[in-house]
Amino acid sequence: MARDRKDDTVSGARALVVLLGFVWGFQWIATAIALHDIPPWTLRTFGIAGGTLTLLIAALFVRADLHVPKRERIHVMIGSFLNLAAFHILGAYSQLHGATSRTIIISYSMPIWATLFSLILLKERLDRVRVVAFMLCLAGLAILVWPLFGHGVPVFVFYSLAAAVCWAFGTVYMKWMRVTVPPLASAFWQLLFSFIFLGSGMLIFEGLPHFHGVGLKAVLGLGYIAILGTGLAHFLWWSINGKVSPVTASIGALLVPVIGVTASALILGERPTPFDIVGFALIFAAAASVLLTPAAKPPMTPD
Residue 20: exposed, middle, or buried by beta-carbon count in 10 A (0-12, 13-18, 19+)? Predict the structure, then answer.
């Protein structure tokens, strides 16, 4: 009887992994739609604000402990800046200047950069699999972006690469500092600190928010980002944490770029070139090689 309940729990957690992949995958599409009418800093500030409130309500509902030890607060704040604030705003600017599918592909080179940071900071071993993955990633990036340089410098490439590097360093930094904050508490405080960072940026670069002339699609996109893509998604990540194997969680993370790129073609009408397809295949293979090895750990928040 107890074993049946355990099997049901694991099966339910696996279903949540798949659901999370879809929720985060479609968040890229919601962002692309919302950016037509809402400036990036405003979009990210209100998206994170709504997500923070949604997650707080969920945390109170399950009576989760949101306490963060005093010595770890600064590390959670730094992680918030890198994992959320920097990643989200850089990703938004990348989508403004380039195709959403390409932004997704480059952003999900993150596991490769995390491997390099782990080698430097955590003294992890760079085995043959990771060397091959790194080479695949470089080849994929070269094939993806080299043809674009014929039309000028593709600014979005630098934004999306910077987003991937910030996400990677933020993830490794939290491990390097041995942060022990429970996942739900960490997610809530990172969202709250990220709101402060992004809100400050909004006031500096865009001024007070105004929504005059914002269309219904953009409003719905913002609502999706806030409630589902941020608040609910982080709650789902907390719900599955520790209930499935790292490999299963990593497969969920790998679903995100697949769903995002597919939805970009179906919903946004983007048509990948042969270079895009080959580049995506190589970068995806590189990320899968890193995430699905036995020693791999899934990214903290693959959004």
Answer: buried
Torsions phi, psi of 48, nearest 5? -70, -40
d(CA 53, CA 99): 30
Where along the chain do its domains lie?
13-291
pLDDT tens digit string along 36-89? 999 999 999 999 999 999 999 999 999 999 999 999 999 999 999 999 999 999
pLDDT, tens digit, for every residue of 204-216? 999 999 888 999 9
Residue % of the chain over a pLDDT of 70: 92
Contact residues for 178 (Cβ-Cβ < 8 A; gap 6+):
none
Tokens of 54: 């949604």
Q: pLDDT tier at 34 (50, 70, 90 boundaries)?
A: very high
Token match 């968040």: residue?
Answer: 27
Contacts of 156 (CB under 8 A, 6+ apart): 93, 94, 95, 96, 97, 98, 99, 102, 103
Question: Does the reported pTM lie above 0.70?
Answer: yes
